[in-house]
Amino acid sequence: KRYRLRCYVSGPGSLSMEVSFKNNRLSKNFFGEVKPIAREGWGYKDLVFDSEGISHTVSLYNVGEHECIVDFCTLFRFSGVLTDPEPQQVLGNPSFEQAPGSWTLTDGAQIQTDQSFSGNRAITFTREGSKATQRVFLRSDTLYRLHCYVKGSIRMSVWSQSTMFAQNLGDVFDEQVSNWKNQEVDFEVGDSGEYSVILERDNQGSPDLQSSGVWVDECSIFPATNGVPPYAGSESYRQPENPSRWVPPPRLQGTDGKIKNPSFELQKDFRWVVSGELKFTSVEPLHGSRSMFVYPMSTVARQTLYLTRDQRYRVRCYVRGPGMLTMEIRFKGNRLSKNSVGPVQAIARGDWGYTNLVFDALGITHELEIYNDGDSEVIVDFCTLFTFSGALTDPELS
After folding, report:
1. Are 173 and 204 in contact (CB under 8 A)?
2. How far apart are CA 150 and CA 123, in angstroms?
3. Which residues does the annotated region (Disordered) include (predicted)?
4. Of 64-68, 238-242, 276-280, 372-376, which has the strongest mean pLDDT?
């Protein structure tokens, strides 16, 4: 049955009305307006919900900064429309009013009172790489929005162990009547479980952009309700893209490929030996369920290859991002060929492209290494090695 809870309120505080069933929130009214009545200072708030059983619990509390007065709360059967059930805010201490509360602050991230979007406190990121992290529980098959008010450039992302499921690097839009900006990312996760929300200062290679400081305040993660966006940020929900499956060129689909696990998928025998920082992203992978980050001066991925002497081969890796992927072939510990300056050929798939390395095998056992000679990370996917009849690439032996 449908019911309406109505309470009359007065005062500057913020009355919240909540109905729960078997200790789980069924509906809530925190954001709903107070409708005035012809009684100075008084108004009312409604909460309309459908019961799920016999015994329910009604809770009234105040989430504002000042007291409010409540009177004449009633609950009757109702035939009108439901009010917004206001799903549970996922983040703890979203406005950083408790220092640090649910957040872990590292590398120069601090709670401060100099500036704030709301309340009295915000986080300031004092140097590049300053970071705020919180662990949250998220459900599969649920659309979420992570939103923060920001000054300066940050990277917001959502991770499960070493795999990234959402990211927004410095993409912001204006907030009305404020010099703070909105930054958000709409996302889904693979499986229900615990995830890490990371807010990190990132100047995107332009330190001067951060000269006036970097702040973050009033963050939230809400699930979408029936496809309707949550309570902060843009009005339209940008559902994560689910592009059609990418099909590799026919020549790269043969069973005679020499590279095992070309797409860096999670499997019992990973095949790659990786030193340095090892992380993956499930955001717009090219092939399979994830791609691999290759970080400058850190990540080196190696695989031993078994080839035919004097046979010509081509290594091809697909890449995206500002970094510079380097592919190198070694034989008996000595460099045989390398590609660090060769062009990246664009493909009709977002900002993905590929780079090639062509070489002649000197024996049976060779070593492939991929690493990053640039200043920023690069993402790599679907590395293959097949026999080839074309010209050699520049071996870059000097």
Report:
1. no
2. 10
3. 232-259
4. 276-280
Largest Cα separation within the chain, whole Å, is: 94
Domains 104-223 and 250-387 share a fold: yes
Chain center to CA of 336? 39
- Cα 315 from chain centroid? 31
- pLDDT tens-digit map of 65-119: 789 999 999 999 999 999 888 778 889 899 998 877 889 999 999 999 888 998 8
Unique residue bearing structure tokens 């970094």: 323
Q: Which fold has domain 104-223?
A: Jelly Rolls (2.60.120)
Q: How far is CA 310 from CA 14, 251, 337, 364, 388, in A?
A: 78, 21, 14, 10, 12
* Per-position DSSP letters for 237-260, written without gaps between them: --PPP-PPPP---GGGS-TT-SSS
Percent of the chain beyond pLDDT 90?
A: 67
Is the whole-model pTM more than 0.85?
no
Per-residue model confidence (pLDDT) at position 32: 83
Residue 187 CA to residue 157 CA, distance in Å, equals: 10
| CA-closest candidate to residue 43, choices 15, 75, 64, 19 | 15
| Tokens 């691999």, residue located | 292
Long-range pairs, 174-181, Cβ under 8 A, ≥24: 175/149, 178/117, 178/149, 179/151, 180/117, 180/149, 180/150, 180/151, 180/217, 181/149, 181/150, 181/151
- Residues 338-348 pLDDT 10s: 999 889 999 99
Q: Under a CB-based contact definition with an 8 Å cutoff, are residues 359 and 329 in contact? A: yes
Domain ranges of the chain: 2-77, 104-223, 250-387
Let me know: does 342 contact 328? Beta carbons within 8 Å: no
- In CATH, what number does 250-387 get? 2.60.120.260
Residue 312 phi, psi dihedral angles, 5° rounding? -90, 140
Q: What is the C-alpha separation between 274 and 291, in angstroms, rounded?
A: 14
What's the token pair of residue 385? 């090695």
Q: For residue 135, give the 3-state DSSP assignment.
A: strand
CB atoms within 10 A of CB 34: 16
Q: Do the Cβ atoms of 272 and 265 come closer than 8 Å?
A: no
Nearest to 70 by CA among 5, 6, 10: 10
Quick one: pLDDT at residue 259? Answer: 96
Q: Which of 296, 302, 303 is nearest to 321 (CA)?
A: 296
